[in-house]
Write a structure and sequence with these properties.
Strand content: 5-15%
Distance between the termini: 52 Å
Number of domains: 2
Strand order of the largest sheet: 3-4-5
Helix content: 40-55%
Number of strands: 5
Order of helices and strands: EEHHHHHHHEEEHHHHHH
Shape: globular
């Protein structure tokens, strides 16, 4: 995740592990501007400083939530008190229209990043020099994976070839949602059983391998994809809704079927089948093996059975 650093003096984001941007100072009369015009000026400066479109969208979402809550029209009317009230409200009651209203840890994590975005904005405006951020939640979110029975139920619930392509590629390659959605016909080498995956965030490429189901499904499906066309021609929202529909058809709680849970399921199954952790790290596109290690705890029962077999005799 990327964050902001104004000039000439830094906004103090050291220690958060975030990329910093050098932005020009805000216009001298910025306090007379409307808050929404000021936001657009800030985002333009952020993009010009090298922020990715995804990062700009994240800043827009966080700062917009704060501005809607504050309800002020002019930048000069904003105050640190508005920020404090917004923090308290979100800590107590979460975000309106949240996808998972009961997910307090998820809301706290979102507020952590949003507070960094709003802090950068307020410091750029000159509203306040010291703006405390909300601490990151402690510990890791529990990683979930589907059971073999749930996987089979999803496959049986598939309505068309696209459903099967989405499930097969997700469950046999562990692609991230955006990686899956950006795959083109030319990225897939059926003969070699390989897929070139482009990571837009880091500007890197890696190779993943096709499993038996993926190869069989793609052999029938790929001829219908035009040259240069995307293998999964959906938006993220379209992918998300399609998986929810599949879950309902399969009789599975829809909250358990999301793109990232399919990725978790792949990783868990790969370890269960004996894949070495460093190999899985490469396939998953993790920069740090510690990220890959979070899947080990899902194998607790498997490890316990191995332990009991090994120490069954005194």
């Amino acid at each position: 995740m990327e964050a902001f650093q104004g000039t000439p003096s830094p906004v103090g984001l050291r220690g958060w592990g975030l990329t910093k941007f050098e932005l020009p100072e805000a216009p001298e009369d910025i306090r007379e501007w409307g808050v929404w015009d000021a936001l657009e000026e800030f985002l333009i400066a952020l993009e010009a400083a090298g922020a990715s479109p995804k990062t700009v969208r994240a800043y827009r979402a966080g700062i917009s939530d704060f501005l809607r809550f504050a309800g002020k029209e002019r930048v000069g009317d904003l105050s640190l008190r508005d920020y404090t009230r917004w923090r308290v409200e979100r800590l107590r009651n979460g975000f309106p229209n949240a996808k998972y209203p009961g997910d307090k840890r998820g809301a706290r994590a979102t507020l952590h990043y949003y507070s960094l975005y709003v802090r950068a904005f307020l410091q750029w405006l000159g509203v306040a020099s010291k703006v405390p951020a909300v601490p990151r939640p402690r510990g890791r979110r529990a990683v979930q994976a589907l059971t073999p029975g749930e996987v089979m139920a999803l496959l049986d619930a598939a309505r068309d070839a696209l459903d099967l392509v989405i499930l097969a590629l997700s469950l046999e390659t562990g692609l991230r949602a955006q990686e899956l959605l950006s795959l083109t016909k030319e990225d897939v080498d059926l003969e070699a059983g390989e897929v070139i995956v482009k990571n837009a965030k880091y500007g890197e490429e890696r190779v993943v391998f096709l499993g038996p189901l993926s190869r069989r499904v793609l052999q029938e499906y790929l001829p219908s994809v035009p040259p240069g066309g995307r293998v999964v021609p959906l938006s993220y929202s379209g992918l998300y809704k399609r998986l929810k529909t599949l879950a309902k058809r399969a009789g599975i709680d829809p909250s358990r079927v999301r793109p990232h849970i399919l990725r978790h399921t792949f990783a868990t199954e790969a370890l269960r089948r004996g894949m070495a952790l460093p190999a899985l790290q490469v396939l998953m596109g993790h920069r740090d093996i510690k990220t890959t290690q979070v899947y080990i705890h899902l194998l607790k029962e498997d490890i316990k059975k191995q332990y009991e077999r090994a120490f069954s005799q005194a």
